[in-house]
């Protein structure tokens, strides 16, 4: 085992209330590897830091994400925008826009207006039928 691993192991085993172990030699702050050791010690994974994360990724709050993705009702602002406008399009233009935006499937088409059927009455009277019957069948 190297001296640094042994030192680390002793640091982990020492009681939290006590200071450094009395018999262990310690390097001074100006040692050749002091900067690297300080950097490693600073970046050592503690209980609050997870090594299993992507570098630079910020953990976001679930509440913030929910609020961000929650549907927003824009009806009031849209109505205010529409009512404040002074330009009114012609009916022909609006009808053309509506027909262009309507779907092309048969279910999207409005029902066609059918011409009203005339009442199915005959042009012949009862007297004409009797006359025809006499001429054609020769009876009555």
TrEMBL record:
Signal sequence bounds: none
Main location: nucleus
Annotated compartments: Nucleus, Nucleolus
Pfam family, one: AROS
Transmembrane annotation, as ranges: none
Location of the region described as Disordered in the Swiss-Prot/TrEMBL record: 1-55, 96-123
Family: Belongs to the AROS family.
Protein name per the record: Active regulator of SIRT1
Native organism: Dromaius novaehollandiae
Organism lineage string: Eukaryota, Metazoa, Chordata, Craniata, Vertebrata
